[in-house]
Amino acid sequence: MNIGFERINPVPLYLAGTTQALLNAYTWTSKARIVTDFKTELKRNLRTCQFGRCCFCRRLLYDDYAAQLEHFVDKDSYPEHRFEIRNLAVSCGTCNVKKNGYFSKWMAGYRRLTNNPNAIRIPVFSIQLNSGAQFPTNSADFRWVNPYVHNYSDHIAIARGWVFTWHSPTGRRTVRGLRLNDLAEVELRALKEKLEMRGGMLSMLVASMSELEVHRARDIARVVAKVITRRRNARN
Predict the structure, then answer these.
(1) What are the residues facing 91 on neighbouring strands?
(2) For residue range 160-199, what is the model confidence (pLDDT) as tens digits?
(3) Residue 61's closest CA among 46, 39, 42, 82?
(4) What is the C-alpha separation between 234 and 173, in angstroms, rounded?
(5) In this predicted model, what pLDDT tens digit does every residue of 9-50 receive, in sequence order?
């Protein structure tokens, strides 16, 4: 399947007159003009760099509202990097929610293990990042596929039907942590809704054919059968 891009390159730039140091005087949720302009422009640039695809699952981001600026390294754990461009990418809402949920669970387990309720360590790092340290750019520093430093296809492959496999431990941790293979069912539900909106049988079949690049033929056939069955039952 088409993954759109291997890594984010080139790295987007800060707006003229804006620096990370200036932005760090504000919270991430600030409504200050310097912050809102930064977010708007960065999101626009990243959507272009990412060919309109999620930085994790590589699905197309059709709706701008659903495309979210994602902190690869948790901004609550490392607030000094909340405006670091190499820590920001655009993701779909599904991946963002799953990543945040996994991080919360992982952090809670780590704190219980260390018996330290204030311990800071996140699953994407293979290093301990100390306060004040520069943001890492070495691929070996990350345990998950980082959209700026890793070539995606070196670690993860996507087959039709949104089936994710991995070529490395880094890819395995990313796929499992984000539960990427759950997306197959999400996409099939979306396909069913799309076909339900088609009026006639011919229109639905034409739409089904156009999905063969993304979905497996047997999955499409299964969805079409469900739509036909529902329509027949609705007439009876």
Answers:
(1) 68
(2) 888 899 999 999 999 999 999 988 777 766 677 677 777 7
(3) 46
(4) 44
(5) 999 999 999 999 999 999 999 999 999 999 999 999 999 999
Q: Around Cβ 62, how many Cβ atoms within 10 Å?
A: 9
How many angstroms separate the first and last alpha carbons of the chain? 40
State the Cα–Cα distance between residues 76 and 69, nearest whole angstrom.
Answer: 15
What sign results for the dihedral spanned by CA atoms 67, 73, 75, 76? positive
CA 8 distance to own-chain centroid: 13
CA 176 from chain center: how many Å? Answer: 13
| pLDDT above 70 (res 231) | no
For residues 73 and 70, what is the distance between their CA atoms, to the nearest angstrom? 9
